[in-house]
C-alpha cells in the first residue's frame, strides 16, 4: 500500500492558524498527544472488558522519549491502533465545514467568538505542528489481519500514507522538532511539561524509564476508602512547599446533573485579604487543564486549595481555558452549597473544634456571606463573633446575650465593638464598667461585615467603642445632670477651644460621670466607618470620605473635678491645665506624637514640681 493525497480542508491557511493562533502555549502539544495515547489505551481496555477484544492486553503504558541528536520526540502507546483507512478518516479529514469561511470569521471576530468557533472541532493531534516541521505516525490496529500504516506530513496540506513494518498493535507518533523549538529537545523541559499536565492520567506514562504519574489519585476514589492521612498526604503532593496541614477538606463527588469530582482543602490563611490565585487545579478526565478557575469556583473560595475534575466544563479547542456556559454556573452553585453544608456539619458535630479554627476560616465565611445571598442564609447559623473576653457566639446567641442591657431609648440593640482592644483599652474598660459587652471585630472584612449585619439583623446597630462617650453610645432615658451652669459650660468650652486651637477638633461640654475621663476624644462612627470601608475597597462612593481630614469630637466632662480647676485657674494657668487634659485624651487614643508629646512630658514634669 502506498498513497499520496491532500488533507481534506478547504484552505492551505489552516496550518498557520493552528501553529500561530490556536494554542497560546506551545507546550501543550505534549499534553494533547499523550492524552490521545491514553484515550486509545483506555478504549482497548474497555473493549477487553466487553469481550470484543480477546487478545492479551499486556503492558499498557504510554512511553515518551526524546532523541536530541535525531531531533525527535516520540509518543508510543499499545492501544487501539489505526488502519490506513482509519488514519485517513481521523487524521486527514479535519472536520471544517468551509474553512475559508472560518478563516474570514477568525480575522473579524473577537477572541470569545473565535474560541466558540474553534471549540466545535477536535484539533488535538494537530498541535504537534506547533513544534514539529514534520510528523510521522506508525500505527497498527488491534484488529486481526490488518496491516500497519505509516503516515507522514510536513505541515503542508500534503501527506503520504504507506504500509509499514510494525509488529505490535498501537501507535507511535514521531515529531521532527522544528529549528525554532529546540527547547522541547531538552529532557528536563519535557519532564516539567509531563509532570504539569499528565501527573494524574489514568494510564501509566513512562519517560526516561520512569513512570511520572499516579493513575488513581484520591479524588477518583470513594471517601469511605480514604483516611485522614491519605488526604493530608495528597495535599502535600499538590503543594510540596506548604509547611502547614490543611484545616479540613471537602470531597466532591456528583454524577447528576453533571459529573464532578475533586477535593477542596481549607488551608490556614493569614487574617488578610491576600488572594493567592492559581491554587485550585482544574482537570478534565484527569488531564490538567488550568489553575485559573474563577468561573467554576465562587470568588470567596478562591483561597481554597485542591483539585476539581469535570468532563462537563466546556473548554475551548486548545483546552486552555473555560468557556462561559450554564453548566459552569451550576457547578459554581453546587460547590457553594457543598462548602456551606460542610461548615454547618463541622459546627454541629464539634463546636469547640470549629471555634478553634475560626480565626482561619472566618475570612472565607464572612466573604461568602457578603458576596452570596444563598451562602449568607446558610452561614448565619454558624458564623461566629468573639468578645474581648474570648467567648464565641453565633449571631443569634449574641443578640440574645446583649439585648437586655444594651437596648437604647429607641429600642435599638447596640452592639459595641473594638478594632484594637489594646489601643482602645480605656474605652473598652469604660463600656465594661457600665456592664456592657464588647466584640472584637478587627479583621480586614469586618467593616463591610458590620454593614451587612446592620441590614440583616432586626433593630440592631453597631458602634465602635471609641466612637463616642459611653453614655452616648447607648443612650438611655435617664440623663446625667451637669454640675455646671450654662454660663460655666460656655466659658469652659471657649477655654478648651483656645487651648487646643485646631479646626478639626470640635469641642463640646457634656455631663458625664465624675468617674469618666476629664476629656474624651472620639471619631464619629459614621465618618470612621466610611473611611475604613474606603481603605478596604468600599467602592468609588467612599472615596470622598477617605480623602477628608479626620474630624474629631472633643467631649469635655463637665462633672470631672478638673473642669472646676480649669474654670478657677487664671489666664495662662487655665489654658495650660486644659491643654494637659486634652493631651491626656490624645495619649489615650495613641494620637500624641512628636513635638506635642515632648511638650506634654515637659508640662507634666512642671505640674508635678508645682505640686
TrEMBL record:
The keyword ATP-binding applies. SUPFAM superfamilies: ATPase domain of HSP90 chaperone/DNA topoisomerase II/histidine kinase, Ribosomal protein S5 domain 2-like. InterPro entries: HATPase_C_sf (IPR036890), Heat_shock_protein_90_CS (IPR019805), HSP90_C (IPR037196), Hsp90_fam (IPR001404), Hsp90_N (IPR020575), Ribosomal_Su5_D2-typ_SF (IPR020568). One of its GO terms (molecular function) is ATP binding. Pfam families: HATPase_c_3 (PF13589), HSP90 (PF00183). Keywords: ATP-binding, Chaperone, Cytoplasm, Nucleotide-binding, Stress response. ATP binds at residues 32, 36, 77, 82, 97-98, 171, 319. NCBIfam families: PRK05218.1. Belongs to the heat shock protein 90 family. This is Chaperone protein HtpG. It comes from Hymenobacter taeanensis.
Amino acid at each position: 500500500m502506498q498513497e499520496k493525497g491532500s488533507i481534506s480542508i478547504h484552505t492551505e491557511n489552516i496550518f498557520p492558524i493552528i501553529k500561530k493562533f490556536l494554542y497560546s502555549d506551545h507546550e501543550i502539544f505534549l499534553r494533547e498527544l499523550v492524552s490521545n495515547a491514553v484515550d486509545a489505551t483506555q478504549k482497548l481496555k474497555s473493549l477487553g472488558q466487553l469481550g470484543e477484544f480477546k487478545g492479551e492486553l499486556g503492558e499498557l503504558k504510554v512511553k515518551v522519549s526524546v532523541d536530541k541528536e535525531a531531533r525527535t520526540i516520540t509518543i508510543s502507546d499499545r492501544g487501539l491502533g489505526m488502519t490506513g483507512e482509519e488514519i485517513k478518516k481521523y487524521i486527514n479529514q479535519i472536520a471544517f465545514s468551509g474553512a475559508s469561511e472560518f478563516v474570514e470569521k477568525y480575522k473579524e471576530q473577537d477572541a470569545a467568538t473565535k474560541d466558540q468557533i474553534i471549540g466545535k472541532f477536535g484539533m488535538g493531534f494537530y498541535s504537534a505542528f506547533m513544534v514539529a516541521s514534520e510528523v510521522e505516525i506508525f500505527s497498527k490496529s488491534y484488529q486481526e489481519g490488518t496491516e500497519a500504516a505509516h503516515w507522514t506530513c510536513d505541515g503542508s496540506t500534503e501527506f503520504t500514507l504507506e504500509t509499514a513494518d510494525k509488529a505490535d498493535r498501537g501507535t507511535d507518533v514521531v515529531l521532527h522538532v522544528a529549528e525554532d523549538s529546540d527547547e522541547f529537545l531538552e529532557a528536563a523541559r519535557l519532564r516539567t511539561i509531563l509532570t504539569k499536565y499528565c501527573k494524574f492520567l489514568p494510564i501509566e506514562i513512562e519517560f526516561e524509564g520512569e513512570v511520572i504519574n499516579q493513575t488513581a489519585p484520591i479524588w477518583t476514589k470513594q471517601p469511605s476508602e480514604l483516611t485522614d492521612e491519605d488526604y493530608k498526604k495528597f495535599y502535600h503532593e499538590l503543594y510540596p512547599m506548604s509547611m502547614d496541614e490543611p484545616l479540613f477538606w471537602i470531597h466532591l463527588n456528583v454524577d447528576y446533573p453533571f459529573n464532578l469530582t475533586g477535593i477542596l482543602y481549607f488551608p490556614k490563611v493569614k487574617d488578610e485579604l491576600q488572594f493567592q490565585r492559581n491554587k485550585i487545579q482544574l482537570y478534565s478526565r484527569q488531564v490538567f487543564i488550568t489553575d485559573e478557575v474563577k468561573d467554576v469556583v465562587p470568588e470567596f473560595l478562591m483561597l481554597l486549595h485542591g483539585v476539581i475534575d469535570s468532563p462537563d466544563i466546556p473548554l475551548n479547542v486548545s483546552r486552555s481555558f473555560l468557556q462561559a456556559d450554564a453548566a459552569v454556573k451550576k457547578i459554581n452553585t453546587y460547590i457553594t452549597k457543598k462548602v456551606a453544608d460542610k461548615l454547618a456539619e463541622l459546627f454541629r458535630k464539634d463546636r469547640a473544634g470549629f471555634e478553634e479554627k475560626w480565626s482561619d476560616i472566618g475570612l472565607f465565611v464572612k466573604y461568602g456571606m457578603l458576596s452570596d445571598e444563598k451562602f449568607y442564609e446558610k452561614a448565619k447559623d454558624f458564623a461566629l463573633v468573639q468578645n474581648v473576653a474570648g467567648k464565641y457566639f453565633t449571631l443569634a446567641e449574641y443578640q440574645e446575650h446583649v439585648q437586655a442591657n444594651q437596648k437604647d431609648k429607641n429600642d435599638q440593640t447596640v452592639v459595641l465593638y473594638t478594632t484594637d482592644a489594646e489601643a482602645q483599652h480605656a474605652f473598652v474598660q469604660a463600656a465594661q464598667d457600665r456592664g456592657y459587652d464588647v466584640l472584637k471585630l478587627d479583621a480586614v472584612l469586618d467593616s463591610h461585615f458590620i454593614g451587612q449585619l446592620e441590614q440583616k439583623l432586626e433593630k440592631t446597630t453597631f458602634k465602635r467603642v471609641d466612637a463616642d462617650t459611653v453614655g452616648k453610645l447607648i443612650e438611655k432615658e435617664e440623663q446625667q445632670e451637669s454640675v455646671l451652669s450654662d454660663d460655666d459650660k460656655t466659658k469652659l468650652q471657649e477655654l478648651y477651644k483656645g487651648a487646643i486651637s485646631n479646626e478639626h477638633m470640635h469641642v463640646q461640654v457634656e455631663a458625664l460621670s465624675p468617674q469618666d475621663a476629664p476629656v474624651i476624644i472620639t471619631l464619629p462612627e459614621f465618618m470612621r466607618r466610611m473611611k475604613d470601608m474606603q481603605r478596604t475597597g468600599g467602592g468609588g462612593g467612599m472615596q470622598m470620605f477617605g480623602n477628608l481630614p479626620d474630624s474629631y469630637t472633643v467631649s469635655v466632662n463637665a462633672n470631672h473635678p478638673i473642669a472646676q480647676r480649669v474654670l478657677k485657674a487664671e489666664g495662662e494657668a487655665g489654658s495650660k491645665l486644659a491643654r494637659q487634659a486634652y493631651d491626656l485624651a490624645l495619649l489615650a487614643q495613641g494620637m500624641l506624637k512628636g513635638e506635642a508629646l515632648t511638650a506634654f512630658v515637659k508640662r507634666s514634669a512642671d505640674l508635678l514640681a508645682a505640686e
